[in-house]
Structures
1.
Amino acid sequence: MTALKKKILVVEDSKLVHKMYELMLRPHEIVHCYDGHEALQNLGDHPDTELILLDLNMPRMSGLEFLSHIKADPVFSQIPVVIVSTEGKEEDTQRGLEAGAAAYITKPFQREDIVEVITRLTRNP
Amino acid sequence: MTGRRSPTVVLTKPPAGNDRSDASTPKVAAALGQLRSLLAEAQQLAEVVQTVVGSRRPPAAAVVRADAARIEELEHMLEATLKDQQELTTQLVDAENLAGKLMSLYVATYQLHVSLDPGEVQTAIAEIAKDLLGASSFVLLIKDDVEGGCEVALSQSVDERSRFAGGHYQGGDDMVDATLADGILRLEAEISTEALAAVPLRVEEAIVGALVILRMLDHKATPLSEDRDILDLLAAHAASALFAARVYSKTDRKLRTLQSLVNLIRGT
């Protein structure tokens, strides 16, 4: 990946939101996963993932469950995770950040919200 | 040389009656000649000084004036550039907002028409309502020509005491009934309603149902009226996408049944 092009893993059950990310996040490379379980399997094939966009409410494995798995894994625990969810209460945000998320964005979101967070979290030191 | 009076030296000639050129004393004549030549020299020097002084002062003042004018001109240019920059920033923000809206509209249209599976079209409608509009509770009503009222084709987080709960809506909400009757999109109307918005669903000119938004996500910052474009898109596309999918699904089912019969008759 180049400095401008990052590999981003999207874990989200809504096809509409996947399509939004595809348009919004050009020229980044996106790996699409539709639940936490599939994301865990895919992460092994994409160890160069630089950021994860994570929904909370998904079938099979929820976002928080997925987050606890990768935070316990020494290989992937350093990848910044951004929760993007319709759950917008204060306690939801708190729970997500305490679980290890680097940022929390509520839906519906604007392109600049996502782009700004990605730029901030993937900036090279 | 701008209106400045030049210092001149005027050599006065002696009156004619007093001409002493024929004076008997040649010394006086010589002295007078010497004096005249000195005066002529002085006059020349004065002219030189006049030229030098005259040529320097006015340009210096002109340069100062020109510099002041240039500074003023540059200040105007800077002011204009700053104004342009501000305007361009506003235009950029507007363009980005517009691009975001167009992106949402494109994605919504794409998702509505990407599949001919009625279940997927309904999911797309639900995702548009939830993820693009920020609705937390809504129902999709499709007119039921057989039993009257509307079939509740899709519902999300509807209170069980609501008249929209269950599989059928018999009418009773003034705003929704009005939209089902005249096909006009209504937002937070003052008439009696438990809905925030009633979006008519049209197939060509016929009103075939409505998307009724009952509640929004608490954290949604902008009012529903700002999402008018997406609501209009739903009104125009959701029903046709859903009906096309239903017709295709029904036709496909019939085709498979007929194919099975043909296979049975042929004994394959």
2.
Amino acid sequence: MFNEFLRAVLAAVIVCFAVPAAATLPIQHWRTAHGAAVYFVESHELPMLDVAVDFAAGSAYDPAPKAGLAHLAQGLLDQGAGGLSESEIAHRLADVGAVMGGHFDRDRAGVTLRTLSSRRERDQALDVMARVLQAPAYSPAVVEREKKRVIAALVEAEAQPGAVAEKAFYQAVYGSHPYARPEQGDKDAIPGITRDDLLAFHRTHYTAPNAVVAIMGDISRADAEDLAERLAAGLPPGSGVPALPAPIANPAREVRIAHPSAQSHVLIGGVGIARNDPDFFALYVGNYVLGGGGFDSRLLKEIRDRRGYAYSAYSYFAPLAVAGPFTLGLQTKTETTEDALAVARDTLAQFVAEGPSEAELAQARANLVNGFPLRIDSNRKILDYLALIGFYRLPLDYLDTWTARVEAVDVAAVRAAFARRIDPRAMVTVVVGAEPGGRP
Amino acid sequence: MNAHRKKAGAALLGLVALGLAGAAQAAVVDTTLANGLRVIVKEDHRAPVMVSQVWYRAGSMDEFNGTTGVAHVLEHMMFKGTKDVPAGEFSRRIAAAGGRENAFTSRDHTAYFQQMQKDKLPLSMALEADRMANLVIDDAAFAKEIQVVMEERRMRTEDNPQAVVQETLMATAYQTHPYRNPVIGWMNDLENMTAADARDWYARWYAPNNATLVVAGDVDAARVVADAQRFFGPLAARPLPVRKPQAEPQQRGVKRITVKVPAKLPYLALAWHAPVLRQWDRDVVPYALQILSGVLSGNDSARLPQVLVKERQIAVNVDSGFDAVARGPGLFMIDATPAEGHAVAELEAAIRGEIARIQREGVSPQELERVKSQIIAADVFQRDSLFYQAMQLGEYVTAGLPPEALEGRVSRLRSISAEDVQAAARAVLVDDALTVAVLDPQPLVPKPPRPAVPGVRHVQ
């Protein structure tokens, strides 16, 4: 039974490769009168609406002495705005069952809203969202309270070896580049951030020309246009923000930080690629084989399956506005730290030197191509793609051509791209954990 | 594809307003094969994908002392090969078909899932049926995988101060019920676990008559049932061991524990014994406790965050939670982190003061309506996730509740009154049923190192 069945499945896989993927998502795109870029997919299957508004206002835009300003500016948006107190905001949203969230990373800062699409619920929720984006109060009492909460979170993170390792990793990889700074900022700089700093940051970064509005769900095109105008019209006028500088690769370094943890957290990596890099697909598909493909990946096979050193071992590129990091990571008990580190380095070096085998790469392409429908099977996932395409100015047919770009990647392309981008001898290594023999 | 499907939105919306959202959704097919395998199918045609989950009614609550964690260890071994499908092949075949797969173990169950294009369901079923009956647990593979599981425990628990507190809280709140043991197992039990322990577990619980197949997505229910019969039908039912109730005796007075681990901030967790759903269409208290949790922490300005974080500023975080669906006895939980300069005792007193206020004065009509609005909306929102829909069905069924309990959930919650909430708070959140756990942070001093070996490491 089983073999007969497998043959049928294999045949299906081959057929899948032979047929080019059909056009996927009809993305509508326009600009509002004030210059905000809008990306919209209309879908009436569920009576709900998702909206995301993003700005180039992530932590990379922090002024150096005010690390944490961008994060606070985003985090405090809904803590009083447009004449509403923070509890009025929370209650008005909850009263219609709406959920407002945020997005914050090194590049992007923004607000997301999920609401029922019925008129009363939608209007009430969007009214709150508009006030939050356009006119945050940053009241002094709330600013002081929230600064303390962020500092508490940063202090607590010092107890977590994974968080300690990540902070040290970005610092070692990025040196004086803005990506070096932690997203939430510096607990010593936060006390000096004032209400005026927050208002000024909002005025210069949360501007209409800097806004990307993603809309997904049960709303007509005409209503979506109205919605986008309402959200963008009251934003500060201003202009776009200056581009970030290109990171410079730092020399190889090894950073060891002592921590009383049962496991050592190991991170290896360096400066990777920007979102618009022509090597993106070759590196993405290639990395599936190295450390992105779970049990298909060499790192998990070598470190977990063969040796039992770790529960998790992975690698990934995090493409950003300018070159984001390439990261390889694992966690292992103190006693196996040096062995696991050596295996990880050898695995990386061998992969960069030799590239993937034909069979490995075929498996990577098969997974990515056949799994593509899972990437856009919910409103939430589509919203995230709209926001991504808009923020990084990816082509509108990005999803339509995605599987073809994956299928076009061959072994030579992977080998060449990794050779250009990853020098295993020039990696930063961070190890946070106990010294061998130190634990009972 | 999402955007070009039939438009059910407008009609649905009217029903949502009436609180009848469940009626507009596709009916759930619920059937049982001759060998005892239960098959549950929920059609959802929004995207050309499906999720398939096999749930075993075997979780950490079915374990015995000395082998805690074996349910989860077996979950790991289920990826290690059968007579026909060698180690690594299961995952490789699913991946080649574009699937995403994993598994999870809880106190009540162990479940395995694949998310794939809709036409790949037979592959998923063939592989799951195979490992339901034909798993090979090899000594050498076990010896490696148990190391992986210990690393997982170090990552999830040992190096996470709040997880250590939660684990200790469970071991204290429950005196006899096996919910007192962590799902991942105690480290000493993992260190002494053998391949034979895993084989015993597999032989004991992995049978079609102890499993439920849940499929959701762009599938035809009749076809799914036919395929289930084709792949799982040939597997033989086996007698299952008798499950002892192990009922938790009544707690007789507040329990207090302090956990001292390296950390930066203190932390407080409170747990009260609380009834879970048994007769879903008659029970009131479990639903009232879910509403109560919403009143306490269901939005950014709900009672606990409003009073403790925003007004009095004695906490940096506070949350509450109650899971009404479980095989074993439940807990109503609140946890919080004190703000700098405020003692854990002060925070505990403030939390209990807010509870006492609800017990005394009840909740307002606006608060009640607000929580209900959130529940109604969340019921629509969760239909955006196929995986979550299947997950809920699996949890309900494994906990002994029928799919109708899930469909009727919103209307049951809507029937709860302010008086019900107040009565539940009075009956359940009492000191004699309370356990309080406090994290007492110890300095983050690294253990003393062994004498350095020159030339090996470069400390910066």
